[in-house]
Please model this.
Amino acid sequence: MFLDTLARPLNVALSSNGFALDMSPERLGWLTPSDPHDTIAQLRDQFQAQGYLWLKSLLPRAKVLEMRRRYFAAMQETGLLKPGTDPIDGIYSGDETPKQGHINKIMAEIVRRADYEAFCFSDEVWRFFESLLAGAVYLHKRKLVRHVVPYATAATGAHYDLTYLRGGTDTVCTAWIPIGDTPVELGGLVYLEGSDKFGREQEAEFSRKNADLSPEDRISAYNKNMTTTGWLTKDLPMLANRLNSRWLVADYEAGDMMIHSAYMIHAATTNLSDSGVIRLSTDIRYQRIRDEIDARWNEHWSLDDML
Model:
């Protein structure tokens, strides 16, 4: 197991959706890295205890950076990148003229491309999940790749993934893969320490509230008992105070993979890159193939899929 030697002083004020995070040691800490070469018994114990695994250097760095290059090369026609820069660097043009429709079109193409599909099916990834879950595994067809430009006003709010996956097994695991080096300043995923337990309690409460709904509404993230986004809140510091917990951050590197349980609460912070670096990552989900699969995830991602 890796020692937590990657922690360092932070000289930036982290925020998310306009809320400044409490940077005190009582409210902000560092994720614990894991060595994917540890025994699977050790890793299962860590996953159960933490609700997450930060697997260092699971994927070949060159493979991850090639995916980053191909993604941003496809985006060059949209004006997203600064002219004259190398696509692999992913440097934002700063052009805020309306072009989101064009970008969304390219994203919808990328999640259907063979190179992206092969990346998500990397041997290192599916073989790890097969060991962790002790059986043959299934990769959900709905996969999401996303980029975040510096100082974007919106960020992913606090949530746990089962909110959007109630039609299947609760042992489904999310893999979040940074496609490129993603130090804390670039606004990667943050996790609420010890929140797997709270997520389970929250979901049990929603199940009680949803008992009188139709089967379709019962599994919906947007039913009358939920928020309009399915998130718990945009206010990350409030949630940490309420649960007397800490948001855990990390300096992710190309080749790392985060996995978390369906109940682990996570969010994202603002990309604070002053050099214009765009954060790029992908969210994919693996589960045992013999367990119940949420049928809503059997189609490619699209903007209007309501998930």
